[in-house]
């Protein structure tokens, strides 16, 4: 599917929602929902996506949509998928009618709170797509750190100060956690590359069994950058190798993009206020540590893709 075909598809997420200016999830959701022509049912955990698109009595969703609690977007949508299969067996839904099921969650509702229900759904092999929009903190409730928050980023619960320099732990590698469930399809994508995202979403919807899309979504509010830089920030994350674009299909790793000109991680971090403390002279060693970690993780991924 080319970009012109993609943007001319009927929009399943209406305008008029209340996301922040510069927010990345509206184009992410629209791109994914446009990547199949089948009817779709969606669930969504509590988070930015839910609260800004379903302000009672209004909704931006033009498809069947279920808001579930913070921890159970995955279990909600597989409940719908299971009911659909039962109704098909009973003849109440035609056997040739194909419906797709997708669950959405942010990093707080997926990396942390929702991991148990998602893990169970993946292990049991339900036929659904799970979409994680990753903005690297609990943005909806006050910019608290999550296990998706990168080392060195300052949040309200891991602030930079005299003793600590932001979060002190590495970001959880969620794609590899999902791949370890031996599911058919896992992919990392980014807001700035809609063709790559749509290709992966189309493949995920075609997959028989569980598929997981992890999409990088910069947050202008929590990351503290100008709201016209969202797409640029996402691209810099990929070009600095901080957020590689790759997929794991039936256990085989494939790298989708290799930067022709690699950016140092500092170029990606400088526009973001959450990292400004790292550029003080006394934190030079921490920046070097982060760059070394990015390089090491990239080399590990390249080896997996070559294996």
Domain count: 1
> Count of helical segments?
12
The mean pLDDT is: 96
Order of strands, main sheet, comes to 2-1-3-4-6-5-7-8
Write up what this structure looks like:
With 307 residues, this protein is α/β, with parallel strands linked by helices. The protein has a single domain (3-306), classed as Rossmann fold. Helix content is 37%, strand content 13%. It is built from 12 helices and 8 strands. It has helices spanning 3-7, 25-33, 48-53, 73-89, 108-112, 115-124, 174-179, 194-206, 220-223, 230-239, 265-269, 284-306; strands spanning 40-44, 65-67, 100-106, 129-134, 185-190, 211-216, 246-249, 252-255. Strands 2-1-3-4-6-5-7-8 form an 8-stranded mixed sheet, sandwiched between helices. The radius of gyration is 19 Å and the shape is globular. The two termini are 29 Å apart.
Describe how the helices and strands are arranged.
Layout: H1 3-7, H2 25-33, E1 40-44, H3 48-53, E2 65-67, H4 73-89, E3 100-106, H5 108-112, H6 115-124, E4 129-134, H7 174-179, E5 185-190, H8 194-206, E6 211-216, H9 220-223, H10 230-239, E7 246-249, E8 252-255, H11 265-269, H12 284-306
